[in-house]
Amino acid sequence: MSKAIIQTDKGGPEVLEWREREDPTPAENEVSLRHTAIGVNFIDIYVREGAYPMMTLPGTPGMEAAGVVESLGPGVEGLKVGDRVAYVTTAPGSYSERRVMPADRLVPLPDDISDDTAAALMLKGMTVERLLHKTAVATANDTILIHAAAGGVGLLLTAWAKAIGATVIGTVGSEAKAQLAADAGADHVVVSTKEDVAERVAEITGGKGCRLIYDGVGKDTFETSLKAVAKFGHLISFGNASGAVPPVNIAVLAPKCIALSRPQVFPYIADRADLLETAENLFAAIRKGIVRSDINQTFPLAEAAEAHRALAARRTTGQIVLHP
After folding, report:
1. What is the mean pLDDT of residues 9-16?
2. What residues have CB less than 8 Å from 247, skipping those under 6 apart?
3. I need a surface site. Which of 8, 121, 126, 129 has the fewest CB within 10 A?
4. Which CATH number is 140-261's, of 3.40.190.10, 3.40.50.720, 3.10.28.20, 3.30.70.260?
5. Strands (DSSP E) found in the chain
6. Residue 80, pLDDT above cutoff 80
């Protein structure tokens, strides 16, 4: 027997219950893992609330974790008991002491990548790698606007974009978070509660706007992003931290000939070769010091509800990790 966070209904953090359950048994081409570190992401909140219908109830939330292989199902090759691995998946279930995973979704962890770092960065880090190198190819000539630059994804985006050589404008919600964005490499930080973001972008860019805008906030920033994007620019809306973007008449894109994307990482890593390539690019960036895990909050797995409350209230910076 082991324990897991289980919810029987969608709703607020209070639906996350710490319960005992039977240990899962791996089937063909599956692996049983003992989790050592579990990542917490905004998508977990969307799943918990039912905004993203990715989990059958009763179910266990969580999309990423690191752990140790405990047993192998028939047909598994390339892994052995005791191997350290990490994963990110479209199938929730990582908020658990143990779980079964398809072997081809697991990424072997190099010795120089810790379990906490992997758990904190598999989803966010691979998301950032794809956003900067696949959804749109950022270059040293670009001026980029990154909303919520002091958040988990925002800090990684800012640091990686600066490593590419781009000029980064970051938005934050408070003066306290402004220093975090600056420390990550933002050339300009705009406190959105005190300044008009679109006007500041116009000042900084001489009226041209930004070729690339990375917007993980959603409803509260979408109109600002439309104003701040450059002619022939690309608005990349990849999250709903403030709520879903309302329906958009695509004619609003026409005056500037704007490209609009709504990506997520999972289609980019659906093939195992792409998964391993993206993970290796992330590990290389970690080794070079381009991105850091910045784990500023940890919670016992049993207190996952409190982690959700902190994240939803934007009381957190950097990454959150749960420990079983």
Report:
1. 96
2. none
3. 8
4. 3.40.50.720
5. 2-6, 17-21, 30-39, 64-72, 84-88, 98-102, 107-108, 143-146, 167-172, 188-191, 210-215, 229-237, 259-261, 295-300, 319-323
6. yes
